[in-house]
Write a structure and sequence with these properties.
CATH architecture of the largest domain: Orthogonal Bundle
Strand order of the largest sheet: 1-3-2
Helix content: 55-70%
Structural class: mainly alpha
Shape: globular
Order of helices and strands: EHHEEHHH
Number of helices: 5
Largest sheet: 3 strands, antiparallel
Length: about 100
C-alpha cells in the first residue's frame, strides 16, 4: 500500500485543527470513530477524514481544506527559508527571557 504522506497529518496536528487534545483524537482512533494509518510507531490521520469528522457542511470542508493547503505552503516556505523546523516552545521561552514582564 502506498501512502500519500502529503495528505496525512500527525495526531498532534489533528488535535490542533479540531481544537481538542491529542489524547481525545487518539480515543477517536482507538474507538473506531476516526481512521488512522500507522507509519513506523506514529499514527497519522488523513486530512480529509479529519475534516469530515470534525466539521459540518461540504462547503465548510472545502474552505478549510483550501486554508490548510495554504498553511502547508507557508510552512514549506518557512522551512526552506530557515533550513528546517522551528521549535516554537524554545522561541517563546527565549522571547519571554528577552522581554520579562514588569
Amino acid at each position: 500500500m502506498v501512502l500519500d504522506m502529503e495528505q496525512l497529518i500527525t495526531i498532534r496536528e489533528a488535535a490542533r485543527q479540531c481544537h481538542r487534545t491529542a489524547e481525545t483524537v487518539r480515543r477517536w482512533v482507538w474507538g473506531g470513530k476516526l481512521h488512522a494509518e500507522k507509519v513506523g510507531n506514529q499514527l497519522f490521520v488523513r486530512r480529509a477524514d479529519l475534516l469530515r469528522f470534525c466539521e459540518g457542511t461540504p462547503k465548510d470542508r472545502d474552505a478549510r481544506l483550501a486554508l490548510l493547503d495554504e498553511i502547508d505552503a507557508i510552512r514549506q516556505r518557512i522551512r526552506q527559508h530557515i533550513g528546517g523546523d522551528i521549535d516554537i516552545v524554545k522561541v517563546l521561552d527565549e522571547s519571554r527571557e528577552a522581554h520579562p514582564s514588569w
